[in-house]
């Protein structure tokens, strides 16, 4: 009853279409959930994501939950997560993908989940890393360890939202560094991010994480463009 009263005065909106949610809907309305472009890469052994890194970085497995479409539902959903303070969308997507990965044999050996970090200035401005709760929920599903202080963003790059594909690729000088590498030595790491476009950001992260001894790296993201 209390929930219904609160929703009457402060109605919850769908993260995709922004229409009001009913009492039994959470973050995404039933219609949008039904029409989200789910990839099922991790269920069908599709290596679309892995192909992005051929000849660039060695990875074990790679997947994305959704296909990112210009002006589509996924774009709006991630926009709400990144720029409108809707952190719980990360919880929903992490639980969704986490359950899928838990059922997949490819991800049962994951020891550590590491989020792609934000620069400290950008994190201070936004107030949170949009990938954190996504990664934490996947960590819980895989019974792994969540580590967010080994990989560090060194440069503070501008937003990628309105950049063309080549501009995103040429901006791959966004530098990362690592610390306390002994924490991830001999581990199978799952690196998580929101969107894969050219793969330059994830490639830079992988090169840094490979400085640790005997690591294996897989990738999981919310979406692929």
What does this protein look like?
The protein is of the alpha/beta class and 225 residues long. It is 36% helix and 16% strand. The strands form 2 sheets. The chain has a 5-stranded parallel β-sheet with strand order 1-7-6-2-3, with helices on both faces. A two-stranded antiparallel ribbon has the order 4-5. Helix 10 links the parallel strand 6 (188-196) and strand 7 (216-224). Helix 6 runs parallel beside helix 8 (132-142). The longest helix is centred in the middle third of the chain and has 15 residues, at 88-102. The protein is globular. The termini are far apart. The model has no long low-confidence stretch (mean pLDDT 89).
Number of strands: 7
* Strand order across the largest sheet: 1-7-6-2-3
Count of helical regions: 10
Rg over alpha carbons:
18 Å
Backbone structural class: alpha/beta
Return the string of H and E elements.
Answer: HHHHEHHEHHEEHEEHE
* Share in β-strands: 15-25%
What summary fits the major beta sheet? Answer: 5 strands, parallel
Please give the share of residues in helix.
25-40%
Shape: globular
Ends apart, CA distance between termini = 42 Å
What's the pLDDT, averaged over the residues?
Answer: 89
- Show unreliable segments: none
Q: What's this, in brief?
A:
The protein is an alpha/beta fold and 225 residues long. It is 36% helix and 16% strand.
List the SSEs and their pairings.
Elements: H1 2-9, H2 30-35, H3 41-44, H4 48-51, E1 62-67, H5 73-83, H6 88-102, E2 112-115, H7 120-126, H8 132-142, E3 145-146, E4 151-153, H9 165-170, E5 176-178, E6 188-196, H10 200-209, E7 216-224
Parallel strand pairs: 1-7, 2-3, 2-6, 6-7
Antiparallel strand pairs: 4-5
Helix pairs in contact: 6-8
């Amino acid at each position: 009853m209390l929930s219904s009263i609160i929703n009457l005065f402060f109605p919850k909106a769908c993260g995709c279409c922004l229409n009001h949610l009913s009492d039994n809907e959470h973050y995404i309305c039933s219609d949008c959930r039904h029409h989200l472009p789910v990839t099922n890469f991790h269920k069908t052994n599709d290596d679309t994501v892995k192909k992005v890194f051929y000849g660039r970085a060695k990875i074990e497995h790679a997947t994305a939950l959704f296909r990112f479409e210009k002006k589509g539902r996924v774009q709006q959903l991630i926009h709400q997560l990144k720029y409108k303070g809707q952190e719980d969308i990360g919880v929903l997507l992490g639980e969704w993908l986490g359950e899928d990965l838990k059922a997949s044999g490819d991800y049962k050996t994951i020891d550590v989940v590491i989020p792609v970090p934000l620069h400290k200035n950008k994190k201070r401005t936004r107030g949170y890393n949009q990938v954190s709760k996504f990664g934490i929920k996947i960590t819980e599903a895989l019974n792994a360890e969540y580590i967010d202080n080994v990989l560090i963003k060194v440069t503070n790059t501008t937003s990628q939202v309105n950049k063309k594909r080549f501009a995103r690729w040429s901006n791959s000088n966004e530098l990362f560094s690592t610390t306390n590498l002994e924490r991830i030595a001999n581990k199978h790491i799952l690196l998580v991010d929101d969107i894969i476009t050219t793969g330059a950001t994830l490639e830079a992260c992988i090169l840094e994480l490979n400085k640790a001894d005997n690591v294996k790296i897989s990738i999981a993201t919310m979406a692929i463009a």
